[in-house]
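Have a close read of this protein, sequence plus C-alpha cells, and explain what the C-alpha cells say about the fold. Thanks in advance:
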Amino acid sequence: MRTEPPAGAPQFYSVAEVARLLGMSAMTVYRAIAAGEFPAVKIRGRLIVPARALEEMVDAAVADRSVVDASEWVPFQPGRGV
C-alpha cells in the first residue's frame, strides 16, 4: 500500500531534474516523452514528470528484480502506435 509522499516532497519534476536523477541527458528524456516511451504531463507547452511515476518505476524494478519499461507507464494514445 502506497503512502503519501513526505511534506515538501515534489509532486512533479522538470525534464532536467529527471535527466539528472536518471543520469542521462535532458534531450534523451525529451525524445522518450515525444516517442510516447516516458510518462509526462504537458501544461501550456511545459513538460513535467509526475514524481509518483518515477517512484512506481523504481518500486517495480526493485520488487521484480528486473528491468522496467517506462513506456508501460504511458497511457495509450491513438495515432502514436504505442
